[in-house]
Specification:
The chain has about 90 residues and is mainly alpha-helical. The chain is built from three helices and no strands. The longest helix has about 50 residues.
């Protein structure tokens, strides 16, 4: 019976280590996700800063975005680059 008791004790210790590791993992995962959120927010603020520096209205920015998506802003296209993409009106 001594061997059985020893095996049971070892199993319980292993479960305790596993639970402790799981708790550390979950805490680290929370910290990682919080850090991801901070990075995303910083990136978003940078996008806002860039758009504000363009001094564009929302409709102007939307037109620019659509032209970029359509590929009409690529070099060699007829519209001649960014200046034409943000025409007013």
């Amino acid at each position: 019976m001594k061997r059985l008791e020893k095996a049971i004790a070892e199993r319980e210790k292993a479960r305790e280590r596993m639970e402790a590791s799981k708790a550390r993992y979950e805490e680290d995962l929370k910290k990682y996700r919080a850090a991801q959120d901070v990075v995303t927010e910083a990136e978003n603020m940078e996008y806002v800063r860039i758009v504000r520096e363009l001094h564009m209205t929302i409709p102007e920015f939307e037109r620019l975005k659509e032209k970029l998506k359509a590929g009409s802003m690529l070099p060699g296209k007829e519209d001649g680059g960014f200046g034409k993409a943000i025409e007013k009106g």
